[in-house]
Every structure is written in structure tokens, then in C-alpha cells.
Amino acid sequence: MDFKKLLAYQKSFDLSMDIFEVSKSFPKEETYSLISQIRRSFCSVFAHISESYRKRLYPGHFVSKLTDADAENSETFTWLEFALACKYIDDSTFQDLNIKSLEIG
Questions:
Q1: CA separation (Å) from 105 to 25, 45, 86, 88, 90?
Q2: CA of 55: how far to CAs of 58, 60, 80, 82, in Å?
Q3: Residue 15 — φ and ψ, nearest 5°?
Q4: 68 CA to centre of own chain
Q5: Fewer CB under 10 Å: which end of the chain, C or N?
Q6: What φ, ψ does residue 58 adopt, rounded to 5°?
Q7: What is the pLDDT of residues 3-25, one digit of tens each?
Q8: What SS3 state is found at 90?
Q9: How many other CB atoms are found less than 10 A from the CB of residue 79?
């Protein structure tokens, strides 16, 4: 099986695209701070899932990569909370993205 068939990979990739689209509307002054941070943290989720799949024969490495994916998912939540507090996203968008993030976690 290819890692791209993993449900967690597919959902995390889809959510990263959602976050990418939402972050396009953030103020330009956030380009090198919030936009960069939130995009990198969530892209790391599906990247770590794909890495963990390749390390699945080595339990310690496998768990380590999945733990990294979970940590990046939590970081993304923090950035989404920050975007909500700054009024870059509305509560409905935050809730939608958060529910997807929780499911992936």
C-alpha cells in the first residue's frame, strides 16, 4: 500500500489545502510570520505521516514520526487560534478547520 491511500494522510493533505486557501486572505504583513508558520506547521503533518509509513517496520521511529505529526497538528491549532483572535478568520472558519484538525489528531 502507498502512504497516499492512508486516510490520515488524505485528510491532513486536504486540510493543509484548506489552510493554504484561508491564509491567502491574511494581511500581507503576516507573510513572513503567521502565514509562513501556519502553512509550514500543517504541511509538516502530512509529511510526518508519510515518513512514519516508511518507518513502520521500526516501531520507535514509527511512533516518533507520528508523535511529530501530532505535535505539528497541535501547533497548527495554536496558529489558528491566533488568527481567530486577530480576526483574520471568523469563528465558523475556525470551528470547521479545528474539527478537521481534531479528527486528524
A1: 26, 9, 25, 24, 22
A2: 6, 9, 30, 33
A3: -65, -35
A4: 11
A5: N
A6: -120, 95
A7: 999 999 999 999 999 999 999 99
A8: coil
A9: 20
